[in-house]
Amino acid sequence: MISCDISLAKNFITEQNYSTSKEKAEQALAQLKGKTGPGSEWLGWRDLLADPSDAALEQISSLADEVRKKADVFIVCGIGGSYLGAKAVIDALTPNFGDKGPEILYAGHHMGGKYLNELISYLKEKKADGSQKQIYLNVISKSGSTLETALSFRLLRELIEEMYDDDSSEHIICTTSKEGGILNKLIEKKHYRKFVIPDDIGGRFSVLTPVGLIPIAVAGIDIRTLFYGAVGAYNKYEEDPSDLLEYATLRNALHEKGITIDVFACFEPELRSFGGWIQQLLGESEGKEGQGIFPTVASYSTDLHSLGQFIQQGQRSLMETFLIVEEPMNKLEVNEMAGDDDNLNYLAGKSFHEINTKAREGTMEAHSEGNVPIVTITLKSLNEENLGELIYFFELMTGIFVYSLGVNPFNQPGVEDYKKAMYRLLGKE
Ligand code: PA5
Predict the structure, then answer these.
(1) How would CATH label the architecture of 47-221?
(2) Is the CB of 148 inside a 6 Å radius of any atom of ligand 1?
(3) Residue 182 burial (CB < 10 Å; 0-12/13-18/19+)?
(4) What pLDDT is attached to residue 333?
């Protein structure tokens, strides 16, 4: 279960401001539901949940079982919407340290030569028992032609072909569109295993398709519960979208008052990557036609000692959205120490969850006094079901908010500009 509270932000806007924005949010939701807004051919992420398919989940689960049994390393090769959703869920739900099944590594999201060179060397390194690491590669690209991903894929498949020869196609799983693109040509030629990204779902809305679900399942996470958490959210918000409408309305009203930055803040480091997924979902959807609230991520307490000063006293053009986990994730407590030589015995007997909660409450109090509008989104606990709900919450909120700005949420024309310049400089015909 998740809940959203805007009470610490509402006094930054007037009733009039709120009610005009509410009308826009309601119209935006009607556009989404009626598929009447710009880019409405990209609403497959809603249809997916309206009519869930167990067959697709089972197919992915059985692939993941096979890979989990055989792989030492599983590489997720993709950029933007093709990997951020998987990383968000994996980082939130898998242990920080120790044995957790195949090691999940990422590539295809940049062209840093040092990283890629070290990755190749690491993959070639033998295990402690002298045997070769078992490697599986999942390349994810809807267009099949994104340079960062394609180039990393070339390097990695060269390695896999060298390692596995005729069996290499077993080790390469491709997630791409049904037809077209260079990746589909390669799949045909090399007989790689293929999963399809539906045509009507754009990258940043694709975490609940094979794009996100394959890596998430390989990481040992229960994709059925995750997916049905989102289905539950779909049904809930079709019935009563008030929480979502409030949040989208508030963002719209704050945007009109000159708020230009939304800091997505968490006190659980496991949620930082989830913030990264939200950042991309909102950033690519709303930042167009000179509009939008720049989404950014902060992981506290870490970033209270870097961004905290700015948030407290810098230019007053920002808001904060806190992602909160209500229930403790473990029982770690502070012990009483004889002599109290570090003066920390006043915390003895308290859990880290309690201490972290007080740090959050203190931060919210201070930032509120520093005139930062604050929204809280609370997950009862950090699990598959609630993350599924949170994913859909942000997808739908993005659609509503961006339509209420009068902008198409589902394209990203600006991203083409850097590509054009890069390809020209690289001499691509
Ligand atoms: O959200 C999006 O559509 C983008 O971030 C894409 O996911 C990203 O550009 C990668 O594109 P592709 O999957 O075609 O390689």
Answers:
(1) 3-Layer(aba) Sandwich (3.40)
(2) no
(3) middle
(4) 97
Q: Is 109 an active-site residue?
A: no
What tokens were used for 44?
A: 């497959």
Give distance in angstroms: CA of 78 to centre of ligand 1: 8
Per-residue pLDDT of 42-61, as tens digits, reads: 999 999 999 999 999 999 99
Mean pLDDT to the nearest integer, 291-307: 98
Distance, CA of 2 to chain centre: 17
Joined together, the tokens standing for residue 344 give 């920390």
Show the tokens assigned to 418. Answer: 């850097």
Output the residue whose Cα is nearest ligand 1's atom 15: 141
Atom of ligand 1 nearest to the CA of 82: 7
- Catalytic site residue 66? no
Beginning with the edge strand found earlier in the chain, give each strand of the sheet holding 135-140 in spatial order: 103-107, 73-77, 135-140, 172-177, 193-197
Out of 284, 286, 320, 384, which one is annotated catalytic?
284
- The C-alpha atoms of residue 107 and residue 83 are separated, in whole angstroms, by 9
CA distances from 155 to 135, 137, 152 (A): 14, 11, 5
- Among residues 305, 331, 369, 429, the one annotated as catalytic is 305
CATH 3.40.50.10490 residue window(s) in the chain: 2-36+228-402, 47-221
Please provide the CATH number assigned to the domain covering 2-36+228-402.
3.40.50.10490
Is a pLDDT exceeding 80 seen at residue 99? no
* Ligand 1 touching residue 298 (CB < 6 A): no
pLDDT score of 381 more than 90:
yes
| Lookup: tokens for 32 | 């989404």
- Residues 6 or more apart whose CB falls under 8 angstroms from that of 229 comprise 384, 385, 386, 387, 388, 389, 391
**DSSP assigned state of 407:** -
Residue 175 pairs with which residues in a beta bridge?
140, 195
Does the C-beta of 284 come closer than 6 Å to ligand 1? yes
Q: State the distance between the two ends of the chain, measured CA to CA, in whole angstroms.
A: 51
User: Is residue 173 within 8 Å of 195, Cβ to Cβ?
Assistant: yes
Query: 33 an active-site residue?
Result: no
Q: Is the pTM of this model over 0.85?
A: yes
Under DSSP, is residue 137 helix (H, G, I), strand (E, B) or coil?
strand
Ligand 1 nearest atom to the CA of residue 281, by list position: 1
> How far, in Å, CA of 68 to CA of 222, rounded?
13
Which residue, among 93, 95, 74, has the nearest Cα to 140 in the 3D structure?
Answer: 74
